[in-house]
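Please study the protein below:
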Amino acid sequence: MEKARLLIAVESQAPTYPALELGLLLAELLRWPVDLLGVGRASVDATLARRIEEATEQLGAAGLMGDVLWERGPFVPAVLRHPRARPDTLLVFSDAHRPRWRRLAHSGRFRQLQAAWPGPLLRVRTLRWPLRRLLVCSGGLDYTLPLEAFMLDLSQITGAHLTVLHVIEPVTLDYPLAYNVQRHWSHLLETDTPQAQHFRALLARAEHTGVPCELKVRHGPVVHEILTEVRTGGYDLIGMGSPFSAHSLRRLFRPEVTTLVSAGAEEPLLILRYMPDPP
């Protein structure tokens, strides 16, 4: 992800604003311009208005201030109406104060934005700063390259340790590559599979740029293994990729994986989709 913009969306009903706090820190770190969006179902909340004003002054002093917009109505439609709803805009938002069951509902905020927002997403529930440990969940294929490149850059800027997690599921498809990966999952890098070639190249890039990086390989159900790693690893940011763009999510991709990880992980979660080059 090259230099982009941030759209930080906050709502007046929330008692705290972790998305705003982390978004401002990332903007100053990456030197990305920021647009602010305040959303409320009624009149503007005085606390949020004051916090937006403080953020505007902070961003203005740093030369990163964009536009400030206020919208009334439900959160997701207000976000999707924003003129910065483009592939080069990182949307920073929170669902920290919504009931846990809503995080799994088909009408939940995360699912709606995952399906409709054209660019990357950063879901924030808790502020984890400074960034010391980053996690990338990678399938070891080309669709994760943009996510891996961004996380490598972020690790280089912050000095954070980068862990690349690859989960090998029990074989459900009958083809040789799946069985080969399954048999050799504990020493994957020693094989000649496409995944091993991908991870060897990634580790070499990390070494070349001076980023402390390790590959962890787990075997089992994907969601369970990712959440187990998250709960035991002490990570400050989790990155997940998708092989499809926002407008072509399919059941085969199983967006349930990302949704279930988001529901079970309180750490900030970055979703960076693969956007194939036009033919």
The chain is about 40% helix and 20% strand. The longest helix spans residues 46-62.
